[in-house]
Structure formats: structure tokens, C-alpha cells
Backbone:
């Protein structure tokens, strides 16, 4: 198939999927209590794909994705609930706040070789929670209640696709290639003239930006957000999705986000056990298959129709 | 002035505990360049081992301390052999993700096995409160004990690393693993010993922390673990004297923030400090500036 034909086919399929799901939810073919999981899948796809940009494609371990979601959620909720701004403005403001915080944390820690980002982001998640509890304006420990439910299926779908395609195109650009080069060999990349710090911070803050979008969508779906909504366990869940799907595979992240969200819903009564299972799986996968289950492979239409020819593009 | 002295004493005892944990981080980082995220959880397991030895087996406090050290040392060796050793030649990212997996596994395993309740730690040593400066400053026997145990362990560790053959092997492996191998040093067992010592020190920290706060919980390792890492970076990661100094500095800073400002912001200050160090002096107070060779 030619490139153009394939793009048209993908476009038609995506639009058809949008209407099919919308129809199924409107007419309750998917029961309302299951619809929560559909929304959660969308939010998790955004979070997982954006974390994959940082961990999988740029090779930097970030452990504070839930913290950035919290920033996006709180900033957007303050804008819509307290100041009455429109939804779309609030979402982008939340994402922008995350982006700026990403630069603030990324710049000092990513400048150095080593694993300081992991610790700094881990601490960041805790600090965000500590600060939010102490701000009375956003409800303190009780959180913010009564956030208008503005995350509709349409908005969710649009933002999920926006995230996926934005990151996909970023990765296929010069900047994305530079990020992948940094992951594969930082010293070699530096010798080739790539400003490694710049690209690491760029990937990290872009990931934070999209995490902010995920948080904003979350806040406007559940209408209640608390500092404890975005704990380290949520960051860990997103990391599990990225690792299961493959470090460096966007489609892998999407599939894993859907699968893990479904699995979470099934194992909801076994909270502690679920974390143990995930932790063991994480260790086993890292020991036996360090690139994650799918590795850097992508599911493409090409690979569906023509199995023998390995995709030459990254995504 | 009284407030300052009181907070300084609090800071010294808390700092002792941070220093003990930071030693484990810094030794492991020095030898295999890995942030052992599970270190805080090893400390937690040590605290529970000490708790069971005192409350169930009715043992003397110091015997319980030794048992906790043995349990944690064994755990440290097992973690290294099962989870970290297979990844020694793969990417740092894979090793880090494994470490975080081990940490979560131990923490949630602890929540399932030990339950989610806070357990009150038995008062194995009589708590005596001494007052001075017109009764405005108090110091407890526990605080003195924490400080003394820490200082003794640090001296023992320093002698071990500097004077014994095994200590020399540890320094050699962390300086250059391949050259050490060529000199006939068994790198695998040296790394295992490093994990064992670091974990044993963490166990002491866990028991002391349980005594200090009088409660233990399966998630107790997370925050002190993170802060101890900050202490290790503050002192210069990989440097044993640095970890000691960093631990004390961090403990005092935290106590002063709690005393003069607000306990709500002490965590913020600690991580703010980390960011500050990374900007101003990434090698830490005691670290040497090393050039990376290709």
C-alpha cells in the first residue's frame, strides 16, 4: 500500500472507532460503570506514551509522572472551578505548568551523568503532595470537590490522539532522533554534536506536559481530586505499562496501557497482591528481557499485511 | 539559644540514622554504580526483624540488633544475587527499574505479611530523660544510645575498609573492577560483602528509627531512604566519610527547619537541598571531580 492510502485508511478507522465507541457508550451497550475504565484507559494511554518518551526513547528514568499529573489536575481544576475559564484553556494551562516544572527539575538533574533524575523525580512526587496538603485554597488534604465534568468522550479521544501523534511526529523529527541517539549512546551522541542536556530536558519536560494533560482530563472526569490521588503507586503503574509495552514502542505503550487498566479493574479487590505481582513481573522482565516485552517493535499496518518485511521506520 | 541546642540534639540523633542508611547507599553506589532503591525497604525488614526478636523472642536489645543485622545482610545478598547480578552488564536503566521493582516488592510484601497497621516498637532500653539549661533542653537516653551506636559503627566500618584485606578489596573493586579482577580479587564475593555490610548498617538504622519514633510500618523505609540518598549525594556519592557528614548535616538541617519554621516544609527543604547541591557542587562536599573516560 502506498503511504497516502494507508494514512487515509488509518484516518477512516480512527473516525469509525470514535463513532462506534461513542454510540456504544451513549446507548449503554457498554454499561456505565465500565465506562469509567474506558476513560481511565484514555488517560493512562496519554500518561504511558508520554512517560515512554522519557524512559523508553530518551533513556532517563523518571519516577514522578503522577506528580506532573497532579500539577495538571490542580492547575486546570483551579482555572475551571474557581476562575471560570473554559476547559480547553484550563487543560493547556495545566500542561504548561507541568512543562515549566519539568524544566525546573530537569535542568539541574539532567545536566549531570548519572541517575539523579530518578531520585529527584521521586522526591518531587512527595513534595507536590506535601505542598498540596498545606494549601488551603485547593482544599488541603480534603482536596478539591465539585470540579465540572467536562471530560467528554470527544475531548478524551481528541487529546489521546493529539498526544500519540504529537509524540510520534516528534520522534520522527530531528529532535526525536537526537533523543534516541542520547539513549543509545550518550557519549557518541555528544561527539556527533548533539546537545545532550538540551534534548534530555526537552524530552523530560515534553513528557511532563502531556502528563499534565492526562491529569487535567482526570480531574474533569472524576470531579474530585485529592493529594492522595496522585501517589507514587500511580507513577509506578504508568512505569509498569511502559515496561510491559516495551521501552521505545509507542504502540506497545498503548496496548499495555489498555491491558494494565483492564487488569487493574479486574484485580481491584487484591490491591496489595496486585502491586506484588507487578513488582515481580517488572523484575523478571528486566532480568530476562531488559528492553521490555515488545522491545522497540511497533505494531503497524505494514507488519499486519506483510509480515516478512520488518518496518524500517521507528514508529 | 535553648531552641537551637534542643534542635541540634534532635538533628544529631536523626542525622545518625540518616548517616547509617546513607553509608549503605554510598558503598553500593561506589562499587556497582547503582542506586539501590530497595535499601530503605531492607532497613524496614531489619526494623521488623529487631521488633520480632525483642517482642516475640524476648531477647536483649543488643542481641536483637545483631539478629536484625544478620537478617538484613542475608536479604541484601539475596537481592544482589537474584535481581542485580544478572543485570550487571545491561543498561543502567534496566538495573534502576529492577531496583525500583525490588523496592515495591518488599514494601507491598511487607504490607501483606506484617499488615497495614502501625506497630508500636517495644521499649527495650529504659527511656530516661535528662534535663539541663533550666529544664529547657532535654535529651533522652535513646538519643544518646543512637548517637553512640552510630559513632561506634562508623569507626568500626572505617577501620574495616581501611585496614583489612577485604576492605582493601572493596576499595579496589570500586576503583577499577576489571583491574581488581586481574589482580585475583573475587569481585562477585566482594560485591556481596558490600551489600551485606550496607544492609546490616541499614538494619541498625531501622531498629534505631523504630526506637526513635516508637512505631514501625512497612512503608517506613521510603522517606528515610530517599533522604539518606540525598545525604549521600550531599557528602559526595561513593565516599564513606561523605555519607557520614552528609547524614549529620541533613539531620541537623531538617531539625532546624522543623524547629524554626514548620515541620510541613522539612521534606521540601531536603529535596530543595538536593537540587541546590546538584546545581552548585554535583560531586558533593567530599567528592572528587572525576573525568569520564571513553
Residues:
Amino acid at each position: 500500500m502506498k503511504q497516502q492510502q494507508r494514512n487515509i485508511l488509518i484516518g477512516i478507522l480512527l473516525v469509525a472507532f470514535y463513532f462506534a465507541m461513542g454510540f456504544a457508550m451513549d446507548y449503554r451497550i457498554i454499561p456505565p460503570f465500565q465506562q469509567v475504565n474506558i476513560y481511565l484507559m484514555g488517560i493512562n494511554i496519554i500518561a504511558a506514551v508520554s512517560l515512554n518518551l522519557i524512559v523508553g526513547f530518551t533513556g532517563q528514568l523518571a519516577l514522578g509522572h503522577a506528580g506532573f499529573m497532579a500539577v495538571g489536575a490542580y492547575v486546570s481544576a483551579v482555572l475551571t472551578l474557581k476562575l471560570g475559564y473554559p476547559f480547553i484553556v484550563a487543560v493547556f494551562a495545566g500542561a504548561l505548568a507541568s512543562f515549566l516544572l519539568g524544566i525546573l527539575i530537569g535542568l539541574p538533574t539532567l545536566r549531570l551523568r548519572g541517575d539523579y533524575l530518578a531520585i529527584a523525580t521521586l522526591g518531587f512526587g512527595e513534595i507536590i503532595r506535601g505542598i498540596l496538603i498545606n494549601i488551603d485554597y485547593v482544599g488541603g488534604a480534603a482536596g478539591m470537590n465539585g470540579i465540572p465534568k467536562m471530560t467528554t468522550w470527544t475531548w478524551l479521544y481528541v487529546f489521546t490522539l493529539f498526544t500519540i501523534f504529537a509524540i510520534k511526529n516528534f520522534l520522527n523529527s530531528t529532535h526525536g532522533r537526537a533523543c534516541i541517539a542520547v539513549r543509545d549512546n550518550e557519549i557518541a551522541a555528544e561527539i556527533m554534536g548533539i546537545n545532550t542536556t538540551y534534548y534530555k530536558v526537552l524530552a523530560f519536560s515534553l513528557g511532563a506536559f502531556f502528563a499534565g494533560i492526562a491529569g487535567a482530563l482526570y480531574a474533569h472526569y472524576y470531579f474530585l481530586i485529592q493529594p492522595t490521588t496522585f501517589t507514587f503507586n500511580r507513577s509506578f503503574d504508568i512505569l509498569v505499562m511502559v515496561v510491559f509495552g516495551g521501552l521505545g514502542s509507542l504502540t506497545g505503550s498503548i496496548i499495555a496501557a489498555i491491558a494494565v487498566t483492564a487488569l487493574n479493574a479486574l484485580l481491584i479487590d487484591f490491591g496489595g497482591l496486585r502491586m506484588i505481582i507487578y513488582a515481580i513481573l517488572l523484575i523478571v522482565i528486566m532480568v530476562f528481557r531488559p528492553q521490555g516485552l515488545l522491545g522497540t517493535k511497533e505494531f503497524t499496518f505494514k507488519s499486519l499485511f506483510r509480515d516478512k518485511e520488518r518496518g524500517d521506520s521507528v514508529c | 539559644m535553648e531552641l537551637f541546642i534542643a534542635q541540634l540534639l534532635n538533628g544529631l540523633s536523626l542525622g545518625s540514622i540518616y548517616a547509617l542508611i546513607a553509608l549503605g547507599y554510598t558503598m553500593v553506589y561506589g562499587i556497582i554504580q547503582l542506586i539501590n532503591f530497595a535499601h530503605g525497604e531492607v532497613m524496614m525488614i531489619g526494623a521488623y526483624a529487631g521488633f520480632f526478636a525483642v517482642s516475640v523472642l524476648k531477647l536483649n536489645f543488643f542481641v536483637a540488633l545483631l539478629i536484625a543485622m544478620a537478617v538484613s545482610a542475608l536479604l541484601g545478598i539475596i537481592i544482589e544475587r537474584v535481581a542485580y547480578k544478572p543485570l550487571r552488564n545491561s543498561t543502567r536503566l534496566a538495573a534502576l527499574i529492577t531496583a525500583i521493582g525490588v523496592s515495591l516488592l518488599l514494601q507491598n510484601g511487607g504490607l501483606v505479611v506484617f499488615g497495614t497497621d502501625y506497630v508500636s516498637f517495644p521499649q527495650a532500653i529504659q527511656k530516661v530523660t535528662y534535663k539541663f539549661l533550666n529544664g529547657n533542653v532535654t535529651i533522652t537516653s535513646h538519643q544518646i544510645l543512637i548517637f553512640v551506636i552510630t559513632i561506634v559503627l562508623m569507626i568500626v566500618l572505617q577501620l574495616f575498609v581501611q585496614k583489612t584485606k577485604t576492605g582493601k578489596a572493596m576499595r579496589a573493586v570500586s576503583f577499577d573492577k576489571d583491574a581488581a579482577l586481574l589482580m585475583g580479587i573475587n569481585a562477585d564475593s566482594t560485591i556481596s560483602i558490600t551489600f551485606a555490610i550496607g544492609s546490616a548498617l541499614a538494619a541498625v538504622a531501622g531498629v534505631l528509627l523504630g526506637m526513635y519514633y516508637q512505631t514501625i510500618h512497612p512503608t517506613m523505609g521510603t522517606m528515610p531512604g530517599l533522604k539518606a540518598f540525598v545525604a549521600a549525594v550531599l557528602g559526595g556519592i561513593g565516599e564513606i566519610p561523605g555519607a557520614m557528614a552528609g547524614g549529620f548535616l541533613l539531620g541537623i538541617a531538617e531539625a532546624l527547619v522543623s524547629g524554626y519554621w514548620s515541620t510541613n516544609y522539612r521534606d521540601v527543604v531536603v529535596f530543595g537541598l538536593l537540587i541546590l547541591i546538584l546545581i552548585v557542587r554535583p560531586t558533593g562536599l567530599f567528592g572528587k571531580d572525576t573525568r569520564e573516560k571513553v
Observations:
- Chain B touches chain A through 42 residues (CB under 8 Å).
